[in-house]
Automatic annotation (TrEMBL):
GO terms for cellular component: cytosol. Residues 39-179 form the Glutamine amidotransferase domain. The keyword Nucleotide-binding does not apply. This is Glutamine amidotransferase. Pfam families: GATase. It comes from the Bacteria.
Amino acid sequence: MKHCLAMQHVAFEDLGAFAPVLEAEGFSIRYCPVGAAPTEEEWLDADLAVVLGGPIGVYDQVLYPILEREKELVRLRLVSGKPLLGICLGAQLIAAVLNARVYPGKEKEIGWGALELTEAGKASPLRFFDGYLPVLHWHGDVFDLPEGAELLASTPMTPHQAFRIGNRVLALQFHPEADVDRLESWLIGHACELSHAAIDPRRLRQESKRVGISAREAGQALIRDWVTHW
């Protein structure tokens, strides 16, 4: 049995549609909620480490000191060379540890939209989103591309949507793990953010019905391809 350890910031942002694929590939999954960070030994022993999304910024360590511990764990994992996946806040933490700037974007990017894959992206596990298949975007912060990283995808609003370092570090600003069948928990959990951004949850709900199943299937193909070819 292989082990996947996932750092989780809010309860409804979990591995979602990725979980059944990982389990089918022989991984057991353990979540480490905020305040229950894994030990360094546990973090480095895991066959796959994941840092999930959340509604805070990597620059908020004065308000949320736990971010310093998370950054240190990300740094240790990068040094180890073992597989590391960062989604949204997790991708931003990887970028920050690699000395790239992370900062608020011009506006929030929330909703379903297509990716523009680079040539490297088209040859990566992101290729399942080629052809402008929509993905779920849900972020306000953006990051510069770290030195030595390979850009995989962009959007007009966010030039750096995904990057990788070798085959074992994958950072995704968007949410391919989101499961359309569980989107209601996102809409309720982020109700204040949606209201502040003047985004109608009814529109997101309707768009999810139209594209969510295809996006889920592409996301599952992405994670399956990555864990079997790193």
